[in-house]
Structures are given as structure tokens and as C-alpha cells.
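STRUCTURE:
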């Protein structure tokens, strides 16, 4: 059973930084691309970023490109999302995700964790 546990969210001022972590279990982590998606209040899921199995290739939504970095540590079964220059529009529940069967990394569907809340406000 896929289990994903996110941590690292919180309240941060505009322009600040946060680092999210996601510890995975229940599947062969090193063989799966990993994704972060988010859901802002009253909105649908938004794909944020994906990293391939060995970390050599990353992709980002235009809304976060240049501000967010994704990385992974296969020895620790953990994926990270470093978020810099945060904006109020980044406020959302952030989910770590792995592509569900017959899904795609970009459009889902995904198996997700419980999420960690990020609030950007002064």
C-alpha cells in the first residue's frame, strides 16, 4: 500500500522560504517518479513539479518555475520541495504524489498523502 507522509508546511511571510518533505513507503521509491501537487482554497488540484527516478530530470509549473526546487534522496525514500520567494498565491495544501496506475505524471491521477498546509501571509 502506497503511503506518503508530508511535513514542513507552515505560515510564512511573502518572500520567505519553506522546505517540504515527503517520506514514502509501500512501493519501490527509487523506481518511481515523484510529484508535488497543490490545492488552493476553493480550487482544484494543480500540478506543481515532478522529478524522475534518479533526480536527473525535473519539471515545474510555470507558476513556480525559478522559485521552487524539487529533489529526492532514494536512500531515505524521501522527496523534497524547496520553495523560495513565496507569494500569497502559493497558499495551498501541498501533496506529495505518485502516479496512479494508467495515470501520467503530469495530469494524474495520483496517489497522494494527507498533505501539508502552506500559508503565505503577512
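SEQUENCE:
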Amino acid at each position: 500500500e502506497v503511503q506518503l507522509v508530508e511535513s514542513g508546511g507552515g505560515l510564512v511571510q511573502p518572500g520567505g522560504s519553506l522546505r517540504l518533505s515527503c517520506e514514502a513507503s509501500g512501493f519501490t521509491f527509487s523506481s518511481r517518479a515523484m510529484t508535488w501537487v497543490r490545492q488552493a482554497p476553493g480550487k482544484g488540484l494543480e500540478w506543481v513539479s515532478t522529478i524522475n527516478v534518479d533526480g536527473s530530470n525535473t519539471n515545474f509549473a510555470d507558476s513556480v518555475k525559478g522559485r521552487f526546487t524539487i529533489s529526492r534522496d532514494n536512500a531515505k525514500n524521501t522527496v523534497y520541495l524547496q520553495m523560495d520567494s513565496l507569494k500569497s498565491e502559493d497558499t495551498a495544501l501541498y501533496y506529495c504524489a505518485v502516479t496512479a496506475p494508467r495515470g501520467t505524471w503530469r495530469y494524474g491521477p495520483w496517489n497522494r498523502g494527507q498533505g501539508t498546509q502552506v500559508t503565505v501571509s503577512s
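REMARK: The chain has a mean pLDDT of 96.
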